[in-house]
Design goal:
single chain; about 425 residues; mainly alpha; Growth Hormone, Chain: A; 16 helices
């Protein structure tokens, strides 16, 4: 069956479409909110941004989820996932309104970060729940295709939300607050969209009486240990998670570099730099879309490990070739290439994890996955802060990223041969 025919069948599945709608609205809101944070922290004229400042902001907003993530996983394996989407997005809508009020009140930065942290903390539950719920609405035969559509469509929705946020910022006087309020409205729409699905449709399947919240939280350490043991017994899932974490590190390091290039190297005017950043985000989104189209065919052609080898190997060659000139056109091409490679690798990783991990453990494993993403991104920002000059031009960082991609390709090729022998 062709990809187009499979896609048509997939979109005819009512429950899949409804889950996809929740994802699109939720991640569009995330895109709006992230642009609000980026413009407030990086591109405000009164702020003198440095790589260290960006790294500090990322640490404040992301590192605490290394603690929240394991709790999210254990609770996702106990709570009805539909209810997580409903109440999680309602809570984010309320908190986002609070953030907008803080921006209007010109409060100190630390209070703004606390509010932003509260909004994005709930995101850990929603995103992990969306990935864990996907096998409940499609059959295994079309899971690869569903994984190429759902996360990629979510990423494109986030990109579109970011573009809408840029537009609102251009026409609104209190632009940052208006953008945050737009995000709040989209979170509310996502919560309402989740009501179209039955409470029990998305699982998880729980035998016996549902434990109380206090008991679930108290069992977090034990549940996390069970999840780690479950992952240890499934080396294919553990290997692709390790590879994807390193790719996320590379993506984070290059993100900080592009932010600094847009802020200081290419333009003196903050608005011009912000416009170029918006183009880079859109081009990267196009790469995500292309990966969604190509990856199902590529996995069939090269296999799951083989496609990861191709992605990492291509990045090892193209990233320094396009990045080292430090000029706009090659960097924008690199944004497309890295968007394609990163999303293609993520689709493959999601599929391997979903097919290798039992349903009762998926919430925990995807929450660990999320934690690894956050730690890798913050770690990348910290490394970039040590290496990058103020204008963002660093040969050392570009070469380091290329070497990491090459190492991933070689290691995955070795694991692929080992799996074939077995």
């Amino acid at each position: 069956m062709s990809v187009v025919r499979d896609l048509r069948v997939l979109l005819r599945l009512t429950d899949f479409r409804r889950l996809l709608t929740v994802r699109l609205l939720s991640q569009a809101a995330d895109g709006v909110y992230q642009v609000a944070l980026a413009t407030y922290v990086v591109f405000s004229p009164e702020k003198q941004t440095s790589p260290a400042a960006i790294a500090s902001a990322m640490a404040v907003l992301l590192l605490p989820y290394s603690l929240v993530g394991p709790f999210a996983g254990v609770l996702l394996d106990r709570w009805q996932r539909r209810q997580v989407f409903l109440f999680g997005n309602l809570l984010r809508a309320v908190l986002a309104v609070g953030t907008a009020l803080l921006i209007l009140a010109s409060v100190p930065d630390w209070l703004f970060y606390v509010s932003a942290l509260s909004v994005t903390a709930v995101n850990r539950f929603v995103l992990a729940g969306l990935s864990a719920a996907l096998p409940r609405v499609v059959d295994e035969e079309r899971l690869v295709l569903a994984n190429s559509i759902s996360p990629t469509a979510g990423t494109l929705a986030a990109t579109a939300g970011g573009g809408l946020a840029f537009a609102v910022r251009l026409v609104s006087e209190d632009s940052d607050a208006a953008v945050v309020l737009l995000g709040a409205a989209l979170y509310l729409c996502s919560a309402l969209a989740s009501l179209r699905m039955g409470r029990r449709l998305l699982g998880p399947d729980i035998e016996g009486e549902r434990p109380r919240l206090a008991a679930a939280v108290a069992s977090t350490a034990h549940g996390l240990a069970d999840g780690l043991r479950h992952l240890r017994d499934r080396p294919s899932a553990a290997r692709v998670l390790a590879a994807m974490t390193l790719m996320r590190f590379n993506y984070g390091a290059l993100t900080v570099m592009v932010l600094m290039l847009c802020r200081y190297a290419w333009y003196e005017n903050e608005q011009d730099g912000l416009a170029v950043l918006g183009v880079a985000v859109a081009v990267s989104g196009a790469g995500f879309f292309a990966a969604a189209v190509v990856t199902p065919w590529a996995i069939g052609r090269f296999g799951r490990y083989g496609w990861l080898v191709v992605c990492a190997g291509a990045a090892a060659v193209l990233e320094p070739a396009l990045g080292l000139p430090f000029t706009q056109v090659p960097i924008l091409i690199a944004a497309f290439v890295l968007g394609f490679i990163t999303q293609g690798s993520k689709i493959t990783t999601d599929t391997v994890v979903q097919t290798s991990v039992d349903d009762a453990y998926r919430g925990r494993i995807f929450s660990l996955y999320d934690v690894l993403f956050n730690v890798a991104f913050v770690g990348a920002a910290a490394v970039a802060a040590l290496i990058l000059p103020p204008d963002g031009r660093s040969v050392q960082l570009v070469v380091l990223v290329a070497l990491i991609y090459a190492g991933i390709a070689l290691t995955m090729a070795r694991w692929s041969r080992m799996s074939a022998v077995r």
